[in-house]
Amino acid sequence: MTATAPPVPRLHVVTGKGGTGKTSVAAALALALAGSGRRVLLVEVEGRQGIAPLFDAPSLGYEERHLAAGTGGGEVFGQAVDADEALLDYLTMFYRLGSAGKVLQKFGAIDFATTIAPGLRDILLTGKLKEAVSRTESGRMAYDAVVLDAPPTGRVVKFLNVTVESGRLAKTGPIGKHSRSVARMLHSSLTTVHLVTTPAAMPVQETLDAHRDLVAADLPVGHVVLNKVAAAKPVEVSADEVGAGLARAGLSADATLVAGLMSEYGAARTEIEAVDAYRDRLERLGRPVEELPLLPEGVDLSGLYQLARALRPGPAARRPRDGDTDAA
Ligand SMILES: Nc1ncnc2c1ncn2[C@@H]1O[C@H](COP(=O)(O)OP(=O)(O)OP(=O)(O)O)[C@@H](O)[C@H]1O
Ligand SMILES: [Mg+2]
Question: What is the pTM (predicted TM-score) of this model?
């Protein structure tokens, strides 16, 4: 890493309003980032099991599992991170609690701890992300990139910033130290938060609000992904041309039919023009706006690869360099 080249982000957080395509975009981004020889970990944190069906794979667990080959010949692994398992990991790591931790879990102590301190759950989840981003194996990074299918826009800032608070509260001791190091990574250029939206009023507004909140919280914003964009382009058609077209097709061009068709054409046009207006509003944020097509069949495995190809070169464009290994 030189002074002029900031590190390439290695943690890609994908958020957006519910239903806009966070899980699909996170999965497609993981495939796009998995260039030749690269290993990408795709993580979900809310027990939704949204990733596995996209890859026609069995449910994900805490164990990282190979999911698919990336578009560039690399590999994508998947993991569903659960706070209880992360706490066991944490206890093992910091207190060498191995089997005692399992006993705590058996007696419900872990459930109890994460229930009385809801923030603890997010501290553990984000801590686990940091561990995956920083892990080395045989002298190289275990993963070139980690992609998180994150909580929706309404909750993402709180989720990402929980360690700022706990780092402040716990001035000494392992929790404080751990929290501060997680917060440091989440606020550094190793992390980037992508915002997914569809071309519709509510999701676009939520994107603008989330952008403002992320910036205010000093969290690094990456790309805006405008998902589910219909392929149609507006064409100029007059009522006379519609009438002539109907006549050419041997149909009667009566005024009511032409008026009906013109009204449908007007509605479709308005929708297409609205997409342009939404794109303009998003571009004013000053972040790269990536567009993904509306797939007529929804997102199946081949659709996922189609979205992955459309994302390159995008958030996936840059490869890591030597020296990008410092996640602390
Ligand atoms: N580009 C696209 N073209 C067509 N359908 C899409 C596209 N992207 C997502 N979808 C569909 O939209 C629905 C929601 O997508 P997805 O589950 O990825 O969204 P989400 O934001 O993760 O939702 P949730 O908030 O429920 O977690 C799914 O049925 C998915 O197949
Ligand atoms: Mg989802």
Answer: 0.84
